[in-house]
Amino acid sequence: MNSEFSMVEERLGDVVRILQITDFHIRSQPDETLLGVNTKQSFEATLAAALAEATEPDLALLTGDLAQDASASTYERLREGLASLPCSGYCLPGNHDDPSLMASVLARPPIHYQSHILLKGWQIICLDSTIRHSPYGKLADDQLALLEQYLLEYPDHFALVALHHHPVASGSAWMDTMQLENADAFFDLLDRHSQARGVVFGHIHQTLESEYRGLRILGTPSTCFQFKPGQAQFALDVLPPGYRWIELHPDGHITTQVKRLNTIPSGLDVESGGY
Length: 275
Ligand SMILES: [Fe+2]
Description:
Purple Acid Phosphatase, chain A, domain 2; six-stranded mixed beta sheet; 7 helices; 25% strand
């Protein structure tokens, strides 16, 4: 066998290793806290733990609520905090973010604000599910059209879709008033494209792993405070910050694992009733 060809085959056969980090909720001032947590420090500790692991990511997905106070200075401080990233990071907005500031201030290499990534037989499609000044989400017609366009254009690439809002119920009534409003339209579209394999999101500040309509459904802990599962009303969990590894395999299957720090952030106001 021609050795050059075999090297290309080997590269194409590689697994895509993704680091998902989400919901940093960075404040505009360095010493400001949220629910007692210095969210910038908590974000930095979580990122450092992920990057200390033996294998480096091929790319990072930053799935929204990167800022709590969406200002240019917040995104500048966040960009400094992401300087240690050894790979490209792809950001998308959450309900606390300002998409245009995110695109203009945060998105400088290695951080990118872009909706389509092609890598090793896979495509990762990043969508904006935010509605200005609203905690719940919806995929606007242009976002659904973009999703369909990529799936039609690259039928031979398996697809992982990333967005901020959860498209399936989390099981917490208060949180599920803030899920993706037009999830049926989203899943109906994905149904028409058999290469779609998974959906990954932030927003719920807890681990969610399920399968729905043939897709892997992956929700991920925040880098700051965690929401307690199965609650009627807002309640914090006593769990450390976390992040998720996602491995996209050449045959279209996905393996994944959530990792957490060893301790909860200092100062966490566990009894808080909301923010
Ligand atoms: Fe959040």
